[in-house]
Design goal:
Length: 391
């Protein structure tokens, strides 16, 4: 179902190419998704899906990568499309597939196998390069097509682009939604949409340099108050605390998907989330990139000030000493915590010290907001890590 505010956004399909990602595919995708969520770029776009188009990999290697990217997409609520290896998609429970037309034609020769293929997938995309191919894709049960390449692109060196007139004919002739692909930069999006394209599919502009749809500056995206019940009324009720902690848990799940310790945090100002963060120590190689630190930095940037005296923080796990210091120094007014540390001698001393800091600085604090959920994600994470080590 289309969400509020999405109707006027330009539709985008992300297409991967790990060979042009300077720092690795997973890290590149993480950067794109974080920037998309925060409104740093792609603010005018709605990502309708990601096609994992690593067609040079054999099926076993592709299956492993598909599983890793699936976890990342789930964390950011992005629909994933497997490419070509439909059996791998079925094995992982993925319901979207993008197929080269010749592979789809070959599959259709086996009626029983093709029927199981059609029955499993909700959405089937097909790459096409002519009106005849578009017609064949429709007969074979495609839900949409990619048409290209429209403009010159490094991915199709030596091949002439098909151009806007070709796209115009495809959009007018095909009964399927058409996504234009090939050499499409931000300055060309409106041109293809004016020809009737449903949206655009972009590879190089996102995989190589990430400048597609980039905005040099801008505040972090805050949430619409109309989505937040009684928020902003001056009183923070139990339902509001649960709501914001659930948002912090969403951040923790992103960390889980990246095999980071799953802790998430949000900073709230006047009933709106102005800062989000999850543990990114392994991702960034920076030991200070805890969820609380990231959320505070984002909130300070969004509000244009470092003093957050009128803000609240929700964090899924009791802050460490470093983060407690950052909470104190940023003057955060109230702190709401999900799970607490289990007491041992050293942790107990640290916790007592932190509570003294909160009291001394008059920081209101409360434990136990969605404690069961906050504890479970940590328990599950460390259990999974132990099982991996024992294999």
């Amino acid at each position: 179902m289309e969400k509020r505010g999405e109707r006027n956004k330009k539709k985008l399909m992300v297409v991967t190419n790990r060979k042009i990602c300077q720092e690795g595919l997973l890290k590149r995708l993480e950067e794109v998704f974080v920037a998309y969520r925060q409104g740093i770029y792609l603010e005018d776009f709605l990502i309708e899906g990601l096609v994992l188009r690593e067609k040079d990999l054999d099926q076993e290697v592709y299956l492993k990568l598909l599983g890793d990217v699936q976890e990342l997409c789930q964390a950011y609520e992005i629909d994933i499309y497997a490419h070509k290896y439909w059996k791998s998609a079925i094995e992982l429970g993925i319901k979207n597939i993008h197929m080269p037309l010749y592979d789809l034609l070959d599959l259709a020769r086996d009626g029983e196998k093709y029927q199981s293929f059609i029955d499993h997938f909700d959405r089937i995309g097909v790459s096409t390069h002519s009106l005849d191919e578009a017609s064949q894709a429709q007969r074979l049960g495609a839900s949409h097509i990619f048409a290209g390449h429209i403009f010159p692109t490094d991915c199709k060196k030596g091949l002439d682009p098909r151009g806007l007139d070709f796209l115009d004919k495809m959009c007018k002739t095909s009964k399927l939604p058409v996504y234009a692909i090939g050499g499409i930069g931000p300055d060309r999006v409106d041109q293809v949409l004016e020809r009737g394209a449903q949206g655009v599919a972009v590879m190089s502009g996102l995989m190589r340099d990430g400048k597609f749809g980039h905005k040099a500056c801008g505040p972090a995206r805050s949430m619409d108050k109309s989505d937040q019940g009684s928020l902003g009324s001056g009183q923070i009720g139990a339902s509001d605390k649960a709501y914001f902690m659930s948002e912090a848990l969403k951040e923790a799940r992103k960390a889980y998907a990246m095999k980071e310790t799953p802790i998430g945090a949000v900073v709230v100002y006047d009933g709106q989330i102005v800062g989000r963060g999850f543990n990114q120590v392994e991702l960034t190689g920076d030991p200070t990139q805890h969820a609380e630190m990231v959320a505070i930095q984002e909130a300070a940037k969004a509000l244009g000030r470092w003093r957050l005296y009128d803000c609240q923080m929700y964090v899924t796990m009791e802050p460490c000493l470093m983060c407690a210091g950052a909470i104190e120094n940023s003057r955060i007014k109230s702190l709401y915590i999900g799970a607490s540390h289990k007491k041992n001698h050293l942790v107990g001393k640290h916790n007592d010290f932190k509570l003294e800091v909160y009291k001394d600085r008059k920081i209101d604090y409360e434990f136990g907001i969605l404690e069961k959920e906050a504890s479970k994600i940590l328990t599950d994470f460390f259990k999974e890590r132990r099982e991996e080590k024992s294999k």
